[in-house]
Design goal:
about 500 residues, mainly beta, 6-stranded mixed beta sheet, 6 helices, 37 strands, about 5% helix, globular
């Protein structure tokens, strides 16, 4: 399988992402950044074929009706850059973490032990849970401690993920490998009709683009991204895909693929190598109303999506990577080829997967959330949220039962990936254009281009707290660490 190239004819690892915004201004005053192609003696004319690695499925122990999952946050070493050892971190292993699969209505407890040598948290990204167990920076815990949040799963089937969320260290800890997929199942007719055998016909695919120097040191902040010896390896389920097309031999007649962009900032677009369409069945927070044909799926940092593929319809999937930050990945990778070892023909997909009632926002409370910048500092509504006190100053206060419509206004010229904790939202419009197609699905993360606006609507349900807060922030993890984060306090009505 020949590796596609970017427009300048260079392999992706030999191409430097662009310099934009605040980073460009800083770069102009330093000799650390070189705008020439990096040498790369590992450039290959064609890709090897290797079986796709499937993350382990974490087994719970059950005590008094509560499913208990044990996660050990630990350090280790891994080859994120082929042939070079890097210091990494993971859950129960040296890089990434196992998949956790729960069902709506389950009572669960997560016993998370910190063996990282630094404070941390674990956020259940996209989970509708009480603020006290959401895993934001307010509940950071120290090295050697165990945090044991317990909650009842309270949402329909969806693909979520988990990762650290402490103040100022999110980018560093996620880039080292602290991320895993969290799958929610339910008893809906759609779930019964769709593939659900984990690792057999229900396949998690965690996509990452990292920044790594020639010595294997993983970079995560502006200083690190100015290194003159940077590579931008592309990883699939924690394995380097720079010169590899992974293979999956289907033993079932239909496959369900769950995609997660766990990169710090890079944008990953999924498409078929032959130019035909993909069948998308879900956005981040729920099934779509019906299976929908799309040309491609664009995933900004933190986003997820689900598709189905009939095994007999042989497919090779490409990932098109573009930088969302000051520098990053660039290029197109044929990263997965599906072959058919199954027998039989899959049943027709249900004509309806979900019912989504679109909001009538005429009586909703309106807010404007401004994504702001001052030099190298990022902010929300002009407040740089790098401390709990600062986030409190920018706090958004609402109540259970409130229905709100927010205009997310990007006053910078930088790319942002806006994420809201607690509840899902509907996209109403993007830079004045009404949402359509798969953008009508439930979401928790949305792209906001430089100078653009996105209007979203949501209803705050179930959980209130006078002490613990949720977050709203940019999911380009570097921007989050640089202050683009504010508190969301949901109190009783």
């Amino acid at each position: 399988m020949s590796r596609k190239r970017n427009g300048k004819g260079m392999h992706r690892r030999r191409f430097l992402g662009g310099l934009v915004g605040a980073g460009a201004a800083l770069a102009a005053t330093t000799t650390a950044v070189s705008l020439i192609a990096l040498t790369d003696d590992k450039n290959k004319a064609s890709a090897a074929s290797v079986a796709l690695t499937i993350p382990d499925l974490l087994t719970a122990t059950t005590t008094n009706g509560v499913d208990v999952y044990t996660l050990d946050m630990q350090t280790g070493t891994s080859e994120v850059l082929s042939g070079v050892s890097s210091t990494t971190a993971g859950f129960n292993q040296s890089f990434l973490g196992p998949t956790i699969k729960v069902t709506n209505g389950d009572s669960v407890q997560m016993n998370v032990t910190n063996n990282l040598g630094a404070d941390t948290t674990v956020h259940w990204h996209g989970a509708h849970v009480p603020a006290k167990v959401d895993g934001g920076p307010q509940v950071a815990f120290a090295n050697g401690e165990t945090w044991s949040p317990a909650f009842t799963v309270n949402q329909e089937a969806c693909t979520l993920w988990y990762h650290p969320h402490a103040l100022g260290t999110t980018a560093e800890q996620v880039s080292k490998g602290l991320a895993g997929m969290l799958i929610v199942d339910d008893d809906s007719d759609a779930s019964a009709a769709l593939p659900s055998d984990y690792g057999v016909d229900d396949i998690p695919i965690i996509l990452q683009c990292l920044a790594v120097d020639n010595a294997g040191d993983i970079k995560y902040n502006l200083t690190g991204y100015q290194s003159s010896t940077l590579n931008f390896p592309f990883l699939v389920n924690g394995v380097n895909a720079d010169s590899t097309t992974f293979t999956f031999a289907a033993t079932k007649s239909r496959l369900r693929l769950r995609f997660l962009n766990a990169s710090l900032s890079d944008i990953i677009t999924i498409q078929r190598n032959d130019g035909s369409t993909l069948t998308q069945i879900a956005t981040e927070q729920a099934y779509l109303t019906k299976a929908t044909e799309v040309d491609s799926i664009r995933l900004v940092a933190g986003s997820r999506a689900e598709i189905v593929i009939d095994a007999a319809d042989a497919a090779t999937l490409d990932a098109v990577i573009t930088t969302g930050w000051v520098r990053g990945g660039s290029g197109t990778y044929s990263f997965l080829t599906i072959s058919d070892s199954s027998s039989g023909t899959p049943a027709d997909l249900p004509s309806t997967l979900n019912t989504i009632t679109r909001y009538d926002t005429s009586a909703f409370t309106a807010r404007t959330i401004k994504l702001t910048q001052s030099g190298l500092n990022m902010g929300i509504n002009g407040v740089v949220g790098t401390t709990m006190a600062a986030m409190k100053a920018a706090e958004i206060s609402t109540t259970v039962g409130a229905k709100e419509i927010w205009t997310i206004a990007n006053s910078t010229q930088l790319e942002h990936s806006f994420h809201l904790h607690d509840v899902p939202f509907q996209v109403i419009s993007t830079s004045g254009t009404a949402a359509s197609g798969v953008d009508l699905g439930w979401k928790d993360t949305v792209e906001v281009i430089g100078g653009g606006t996105v209007v979203i609507a949501m209803e705050f349900t179930d959980y209130s707290d006078d002490t613990y807060m949720y977050m709203l922030h940019c999911h380009l993890a570097q921007h989050e660490d640089e202050g683009m984060m504010a508190a969301l306090m949901v109190t009783a009505s």
